[in-house]
Amino acid sequence: MAPERINIDHEQLVMIFASSCIEWTAEALDCDYQEVFNRMDKVGLIDDYIIKCYDVLHLESRKNITEDIIQTLLLWENKQNSTENR
Question: What single string gives the DSSP state of each residue in 27-81?
């Protein structure tokens, strides 16, 4: 007898994906996931990029997603820092 499938709705899938992105980024940057979450949250990356662009992002490989998120995080942090220093 096959095991029963777990039904996950779209919102749950997106949240699982977002948490995976945080973990993959933390691993790639060799730092704690909480630090990465805080950095992403500070610049709005989770809501305004990962969740907003889920339909496109989740089709990429883990490697490409991670590299893209790191580049975006650094870009958004630099933009925020330059805005704050004005």
Answer: HHHTS-HHHHHHHHHHHTHIIIIIITTHHHHTTS-HHHHHHHHHHHHHHHHHHHH
